[in-house]
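Researcher: I'd like a candidate sequence for this fold, 467 residues long. If you have to choose between options at a position, lean toward the conservative one.
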């Protein structure tokens, strides 16, 4: 079975279309809102499920005001403004995150969901959202979403990979300076009426070594800013990265930990990074070094960190992310780091600046609208990426299917048997899912019966069309 694809957004030549089994097996298309969601059982029996829900296919594309959008976690006004400017007015906004049944109830009828880092879209939660078309993470991290479950349901997930990078980088450099200068302790002292006007334990960052674990967007930005303060930057990444400025790569995490005066973490939350910094890694760090974590809470063993700070193995830490974070301002924040004088604690605000949030709101809203309006999955984090021209003067069929042998040939065969001329076809697959978009000149033959047949092809996960 081929899993390859025509290049992103490329028109597949007609000859290839006719021989589509050679291209890959399961591309799908859908049009605005006219979807056929499937349950687990339905996935195993595509044909039966599609037929059962066939009446949905006969609906015309959903008008935009029927597309229900739920935005959680205080997503910025720019998102709403953009959605509205593109005709999407059926928007519900919530200030906080939801979980459990409250979340399932809230998104049961939603076609689009917008979240940040605190809303967990598990498989179970996604199973309850039968009408779901797409998810927008208005942040960088996407570990809060079961991306595989979303893909299996034919739901692309989008995020904002850069919009808060600079905000995090600025905070980290500021924290490095504060820690090396011993400011957290002096701040506490003054608040208590003390006056510790000594240079003890207070240093310049100039000439100190900053060790960056993860040299991606944020790590490399921190590198640039830290060098401008005269710091010497080293980094460790599992992928070979271009060193910026005078930064130097380390061969191993241990090598980095042994040299750095400040270690700052900039890795995603993955099975490999969970517990990346535990008691052994802290033991490998220099006596009196500092740790900064603005990545994800589970990357650091927080109890081991608390022990190291109390024993003064580490001189200080700045922590923005925690293994367990309150879902809203109403919950009490609990952590073994509370009350430690040499620690800067912030409530996961690395990316929370007005500039970043405004940029993210617009960026992710644009991706959601593009997917809804045209079917483009460019920038999706869990899905074959298909870049598409604007849908105009054509009927566009969007078919998402399991990548199993025969789906593409059945799709193309159907167009051929109905004598419908294809004016453009766009296909991208990954090992699990295929996404194919077919444009045809407006054609009466591509009516309800045809759409039902497309949706009934075994392996179909979602189907919609844009008229
Ligand atoms: N505190 C906040 O508010 C905030 C804001 C934005 C992002 N973040 C977090 O920061 C993380 C990093 O963001 P980014 O934009 O730089 O991501 P990125 O994907 O650009 O960079 C991550 C880097 O980590 C590397 N990496 C992965 N596993 C590794 C490992 N085991 N050891 C060493 N390196 C490893 C990757 O190769 C990559 O270069 C995000 O995943 C997100 O969780 C937090
Ligand atoms: O992943 C991110 O971008 C950060 O962790 C920020 O998350 P937030 O939007 O919940 O502040």
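Model: Candidate sequence:
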């Amino acid at each position: 079975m081929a899993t390859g694809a025509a290049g992103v957004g490329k028109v597949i030549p007609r000859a290839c279309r006719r021989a589509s089994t050679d291209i890959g097996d399961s591309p799908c298309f859908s049009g605005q809102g006219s979807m056929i969601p499937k349950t687990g059982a339905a996935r195993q029996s595509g044909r039966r499920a599609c037929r059962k829900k066939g009446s949905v296919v006969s609906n015309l594309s959903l008008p935009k005001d029927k597309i229900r959008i739920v935005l959680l976690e205080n997503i910025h006004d720019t998102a709403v403004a953009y959605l509205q400017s593109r005709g999407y007015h059926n928007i519900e906004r919530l200030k906080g995150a939801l979980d459990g049944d409250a979340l399932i109830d809230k998104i049961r009828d939603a076609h689009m969901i917008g979240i940040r880092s605190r809303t967990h879209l598990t498989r179970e939660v996604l199973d309850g959202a039968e009408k779901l078309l797409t998810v927008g993470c208005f942040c960088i991290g996407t570990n809060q979403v079961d991306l595989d479950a979303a893909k299996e349901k034919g739901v692309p997930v989008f995020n904002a990979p850069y919009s808060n990078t600079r905000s995090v980088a600025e905070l980290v450099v500021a924290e490095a300076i504060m820690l090396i200068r011993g400011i957290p302790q002096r701040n506490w002292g003054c608040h208590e009426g003390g006056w510790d006007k000594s240079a003890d334990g207070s240093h310049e960052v100039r000439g100190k070594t900053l060790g960056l674990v993860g040299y991606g967007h944020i790590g490399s930005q921190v590198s640039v800013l830290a060098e401008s303060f005269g710091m010497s930057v080293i980094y460790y990444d599992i992928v070979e990265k271009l060193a910026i400025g005078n930064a130097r790569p380390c061969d191993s995490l241990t090598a980095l930990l042994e040299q750095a005066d400040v270690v700052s973490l900039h890795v995603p939350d993955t099975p490999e990074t969970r517990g990346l910094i535990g008691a052994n890694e802290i033991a490998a760090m220099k006596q009196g070094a500092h740790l900064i974590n603005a990545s994800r809470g589970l990357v650091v063993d927080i109890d081991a960190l608390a022990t190291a700070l109390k024993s003064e193995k580490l001189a200080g830490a700045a922590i923005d992310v925690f293994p367990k974070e309150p879902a809203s301002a109403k919950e009490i924040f609990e952590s073994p780091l509370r009350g430690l004088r040499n620690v800067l604690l912030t409530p996961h605000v690395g990316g929370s600046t007005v500039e970043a949030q405004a940029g993210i709101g617009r960026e992710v809203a644009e991706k959601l609208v593009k997917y809804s309006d045209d079917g483009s999955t460019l920038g999706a984090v869990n899905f074959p990426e298909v870049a598409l021209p604007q849908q105009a003067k054509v009927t566009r069929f969007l078919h998402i299917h399991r990548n199993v042998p025969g789906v593409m040939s059945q799709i193309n065969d159907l167009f051929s048997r109905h004598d419908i001329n294809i004016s453009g076809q766009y296909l991208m697959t990954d090992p699990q899912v295929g996404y194919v978009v077919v444009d045809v000149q407006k054609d009466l033959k591509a009516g309800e019966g045809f759409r039902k047949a497309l949706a009934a092809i075994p392996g179909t996960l979602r189907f919609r069309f844009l008229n």
